[in-house]
Write a structure and sequence with these properties.
The chain has about 375 residues and is α/β, with parallel strands linked by helices. Helices cover about 35% and strands about 25% of the residues. α4 crosses α6 (about 145-165).
């Protein structure tokens, strides 16, 4: 078989690439190892017509105008403001940790002192990583600042990191800890600074199907590219799988956070107070998502059925997130050096770049590639 463009794995960045290539009247072949496209963002309706995110919850959020306008060509969106609660010391508190979290956790006078100390060093509406906050508390020798920095680190970050990544919070790349900052406000939204926070009206999978609807795009599901690659001649390959797998682990295997996503159905209208509740300290799972709460205006919202997803980390199931330790990054550098020598193969996305990327950044990455 001869094809101009070969794409390995049908993740969002490569669906964007496929759509752009088809617009240029170029043929594209996508080989996907799963039985569906859209990789970990795949969603579907169950027997009760509840829309399920098969692997874990995905919320589209961005400040990138180009990405927002691009996706609007393929779907309409419904406004959605994502909020997350965490179970800490028998309280359900907002995360990212903010002034509402402080007031729900501590006695009134202590909460007031902590807020005053934070506002002494940070402007209202600003945000700071837990690492920066701990360093500031140590430098300033402020007891209230040290107290809250240590509390947040111990109760919100430390145990969650150990549970999710199976390594000490001190060993994880600081960029991971920065993803959930401490926020100096009473805004409970998980993405308070993003202009666009929406869910696709016609669900993610339908949006992806629209993007690859061209007759120039062919998709092969349930196939491992390694079983087919010898039979295919291509001008260019776009590879989204693990970069160490492509090079047959010649420098060693990179570590990925693996997670089992366990779906459970209940004969009740509602399972929990919020769409997503994190469990940083208790239980074997890291969080529980209740899917029907994503679309509160849906007719299924009122039926006496609900489905939840429990995320159990390090159960050997799905490679989800790169574990960015110094050792893994050293191995990655060797693979990237080899990858740079390949003129007709392009490596993108989270597994190929060994870097966590939000959905909008992946799309932007794919839109920026010169085709």
């Amino acid at each position: 078989m001869k094809i101009k463009n070969l794409i390995i794995w049908a993740w969002i960045s490569w669906i964007v690439i496929a759509q752009r290539l088809a617009e240029k009247w170029e043929e594209v072949l996508i080989i996907e190892k799963r039985n569906h496209i859209w990789w970990n963002c795949y969603d579907y309706f169950d027997k009760n017509w509840i829309l399920i995110h098969k692997y874990w919850p995905h919320i589209f959020h961005t400040d990138i105008e180009e990405v927002w306008h691009y996706l609007n060509k393929f779907t309409e969106f419904t406004n959605f403001q994502h909020k997350v609660l965490a179970s800490v010391d028998s309280n359900l508190i907002p995360v990212p940790f903010n002034f509402n979290s402080i007031q729900k956790t501590f006695p009134k006078e202590l909460a007031k002192n902590i807020e005053s100390s934070l506002l002494k060093f940070y402007e209202y509406w600003s945000k700071v990583s837990i690492t920066e906050l701990r360093e500031k508390a140590k430098k300033e020798e402020n007891k209230d600042l040290k107290f809250i920095a240590d509390y947040i680190y111990e109760k919100v970050f430390k145990n969650y990191t150990v549970k999710q990544w199976w390594i000490s919070a001190n060993d994880i790349n600081d960029n991971i800890l920065k993803r959930v900052p401490v926020v100096m406000s009473k805004d409970n939204r998980y993405f308070p600074n993003n202009k666009y926070q929406w869910m696709p009206v016609n669900w993610y999978t339908n949006m992806m199907n629209e993007m690859i609807s061209s007759k120039l795009i062919k998709v092969i599901l349930n196939a491992d590219y390694k079983d087919l690659i010898k039979e295919i001649k291509f001008d260019k390959m776009f590879f989204t799988g693990p970069i160490d797998e492509y090079f047959e682990y010649k420098y060693g295997k990179l570590d990925y956070r693996k997670t089992l996503y366990k779906l459970e159905e209940y004969d009740k209208n509602s399972f929990q107070e919020n769409i997503v509740i994190n469990y940083p300290n208790d239980y074997e799972y890291t969080r529980i998502t209740e899917f029907k709460k994503f679309y509160p205006n849906s007719p299924t919202f009122w039926i006496n059925k609900t489905v939840i997803c429990k995320e159990l980390p390090w159960v050997w199931n799905i490679d989800a997130y790169p574990v960015e330790t110094s050792n893994n990054l050293e191995i990655l550098e060797m693979y990237q050096k080899d990858a740079s020598k390949l003129d007709n193969i392009c490596f993108l996305w989270r597994l190929a770049n060994y870097k966590y990327m939000d959905m909008d950044k992946t799309i932007k990455n794919a839109l920026d590639i010169k085709l």
